[in-house]
Predict the structure of Nucleolar protein 11.
Amino acid sequence: MAALYEGYTLCGLVPDQNLSSSGIQGIEEERDRDHVVVTDSTRSVTLYKVSDQKPLGSWTVKQGQKLTCPAVFNSQTNEYVAVTDNKVIRIWKEDDILLDKAFKATVSSDVWKVHCTHGGEPVVLFQRGAVRLLDSLLAAPQQPIEEVLAQEETIRWSTIIVAETQQFIIITTEQKGEHFLYLQRLNPNSVQRYRLEREEPGLSPLSFSAIYKDKHICLLYLYPNGHMYQSVLSVRGLGTEEGVQALPLPRSLLLGLPVGDGQLEAASAMALDEAHVAVVGVPHPSAGGGKDFLCIWNTNFQTLQAGKEMAGKIYGQLWSYSNKVFIPHGKTLSIIPFECPKSSLASALGKLKHTKTEESKTPNSVPSWNNILHGEKAQPSKTAETRRTRTTRKSQSATNLTTDQVLELIKTAPVEEIQKEVEGFLTRSEFQDLQPSVGQLALTLVSRSLADPAFYSSSTLAQLVHTRCLCHSVCPDLVLLALEKKDYFLCQLCLQFFPDIPEAVTCACLKAFISMPDVDAEKVSLEPNSVTFMENLITRDRAEAGLQNGFSPTSSVVNDRQTRAEDGKKASAPSQLICPVGLHKAVLINEILQTPYSDTFLLPHLKDLSSQNVMLFLQYLQFLYLKYSQDAFPQMEGFRSPSLSQIMDWVCLLLDAHFTVLVMTPEAKGLLLNLHSFVKSQVRLVSELGKIEGSLQQLHKMKAKESIGQYSIEIIELF
């Protein structure tokens, strides 16, 4: 299921006075995935390092001059190319300081845009539709430029796509209310003109996006009425002569997006991959009016998979590079990381992970769509299902409320009535209709809970989360509300099922969990699977500490200090390890360890933890590390539990965030020494394995004997 993660600011904006434009002409990815070139709508080009959000260089044209197309990076020559005043092509390198002293050439016709693919030569597109490769144009800048477009025909959008090792320029134009598309191939040159089908009278496309898939170019375009269409273009069969007559371009309706009151104005859609589209400026189906969202839709299954509210005005601009969306809004240019896993019906419904769990529990059973759609509950027989359905229909025939009726009920009814009606609504609804409805129900419940402190329906919210049709982006206040109400069971469910929880919220949960008294934690009802795991881990007693993975952390401490008698008293056997936190608190902390995060965004929030909390957290991580190293961990499979790598990653994060404080804290000295011993033992293990690496490789190279009986003894000599 697609997810949008916590965004960050790349730079500020200087929008027009009437806020009609963001002030940005374009954004282009530079030589690697961590650099972008941002061109404003007046005079400046700036190179940014994305990971640091820092400008590495900036170039400005003189007063009175104007940048008229976005700058691009030519990876063949490591140079930047831009156009000023429509006709002056400027080329410069990163170490150039003044653009006025860089190379420039004046051409004979106005330029629309310069396009460039990674590793390809820049292509210059003129306003009248002609195309030239940059080198051939610079060889004779004043060469005559032909007119491809008809009279009164103007370019609205263009892009470049590499298909089957060839470059294609795609141009959309408008002429007297008609819209056309030009597909032009370079080397050999050929062009074909298409006519787009008319939409409602007076409606023009708001945005275009193109992607190459299955040996075809797929064009996506969005109209103000919320209709998103797809047209498929073949890259083969283009003639060598220019196509004068416009061919009709077939289209198919890809999505019908909600538009709210009136029609869309500043909206944009962009294809992220073969099955996902990012949309901005379109109302969120589960949110009220007056809010702007960035959303990801799955086009294969018509489902909204992620959404994030964007503060400030939306300008209808969107760029995407390297799994990051660049979006100007208000006075900020933000970067929103995203993830779009491979599309399947199970993942679109949020059930892919659950299916794997079901398979692991019943390895001999064949997974069915019932398992995918309805989770781990045992499926009744058809006869029993029929009886249940008939009974349910009879009992609910008088109260079959619609989504709007349930929403109105939530605003005023008592908790018990809401719980009953929501449960009935979830039972009656088709699964494909649940996602927008569940989001609306959750938002309404949370809004009432925030407005009325006396109202809170924990079980209803838990039911909605269990549908797996919710995520943090759809209902961003849910987790914080659960923390405020000390509803730690709901917090646990959200941490398990939401793939897009921001790092700030993750740290808020961690702080609440680790600060909670053990007595209060034991009163909380938690998910049984995770509790069973910790019970087994804490209560397992073993008669002797066997070596696991070739080493024992406690014995390494003995060897390092070379005082077996003294350290034997300090080093605890596996059966004597004591968990520094209570059972239920440990279960909640385990959910934090398994939550997705980004190091860059998590570290600043981790620094807000107190030294006491950090010490307790590190002691618990040390306990887990020892248990995982000494106990037969493979026997714990099938339970929800953190992995050893997740434990070590969190140890490293805590040390990075609080190393100075820990070094200056006397109570932390012993803990840091133990952690050092654990790392040292791992290094020793890897070193010992490295010594026998050559011998193990020789075993792989040895040829097995062709005929081996039922029993044989073979002596292998390792040198």
The radius of gyration is 31 Å. Confidence is low (pLDDT under 50) at residues 351-398, 541-575. Residues 492 and 588 are 7 Å apart (CA to CA).
